[in-house]
Amino acid sequence: MAFITKETVKDIRQALKKEFPEIKFSIRKEHHSSVSVAIMKSPYFDNGIHKQLNHYWIKESTDNETQADVVTRIDEIIRKTGDYFDESDSMTDYFHCAFYYDIQVGKWDKDHEQVG
After folding, report:
1. CA separation (Å) from 22 to 17, 18, 60?
2. pTM (two decimals)
């Protein structure tokens, strides 16, 4: 069963802030089983964007190589810091992972702001 603690979310937040001091993140724990990471201010994305990124298809979800590299590194930090694993098998209707997570640029109620 997917589960994430407040401490793990805190560790992810600290690791992302350390790696990307130029980015303002919104990192929230949701429903005891997932973490939501939103890039709110950065030099990598344009103003006024709200975009849900697919962490399985990062290059296809981003507009250029620089954005893909940043999101790939964010994905790696989330997985490494949170001791992420995924042993799910949809063919047998078996879902077992450490936690769920999503990465987005901006939020539904607040768009991304480009800085720098």
Report:
1. 8, 10, 24
2. 0.91
